[in-house]
Amino acid sequence: MTLTTEQLAKYIDHTNLKADATEASIKETCDEAKQFNTASVCVNSYWIPFVTEQLKDSDVNPIAVVGFPLGAMATESEIFEAVTAIDQGAEEIDMVINVGELKAGNDDKVLADIAGLADAVHAKGKILKVILETALLNNEEIVRACQLSEKANADFVKTSTGFSTAGAKLDDVKLMRETVGDRLGVKASGGIHTKDEALAMIDAGASRLGVSATVAILTGKAAAKSAGY
User: Fold this and answer.
1) Is 158 considered catalytic here?
2) Annotated catalytic, 10?
3) CA-CA distance, 75 to 112, in Å (whole number)?
């Protein structure tokens, strides 16, 4: 696949989810996103008011993660976090699936959790992505997680938080795209550090990329590999 720098930038959710992120580092993330006109800036919900202010004169959307990074949060708490973030400016919400309940086969509970978030987010006219944490799942579980996300009316399925044992894998992205077809978006996130890796994820079926190495990907300069995105 051949994309211009400008086209590739619009696949990217420029991400800063580090626990030690400061206002200065979040501002730098926003400035980079505006420079390259990425799709969004993705941050923990605490930073949404600040990010919304930083991005107000741009085409870059603020995104909040909720129930992050473990997904083991009461649905009511996730909904409160999501709605609060939306009211403060978030245009999209990336939630983490309840991995333990999925692996235990408690599909009704997983479905209810996602559907609760989807209803709340869609009532605000916004987009919901479901992080599957594919590194902790086998292929059957990935397929089931995608099917449950679609049944719950989510808008995207997403590979990873970037904080587990591994990030996005090409085979997982392909499997997710095969499962949801063109009905849902697929976001590849975690461990994407070069332009070649980014393009390979898009070729595999990703319609969005979650990365912190945005500048390296778009300029070709080497990025240091670190934990997280």
Assistant:
1) yes
2) no
3) 8
Burial 14-46 (b: 16+ CB within 10 A, else e): bbbbbeebeeeebeebbebbbebebbbbbbbbe
What is the overall mean pLDDT for the chain? 96
- Residues 3-32 have pLDDT tens digits of 999 999 999 999 999 999 999 999 999 999
Return the number of other C-beta atoms located less than 10 Å from residue 190's C-beta.
25
CB 17 within 8 A of CB 42: yes
Burial tier of 221 (Cβ tally within 10 Å: 0-12, 13-18, 19+)? exposed
H-helix or E-strand spanning residue 209: strand 208-211
Q: Which residue in 18, 126, 129, 187 is the catalytic one?
A: 187
Which of 126, 158, 169, 172 is labelled catalytic? 158
- The Cα–Cα gap between 218 and 146 comes to 30
Q: Are 207 and 177 in contact (CB under 8 A)?
A: no
Q: CA 44: distance to chain centroid?
A: 11
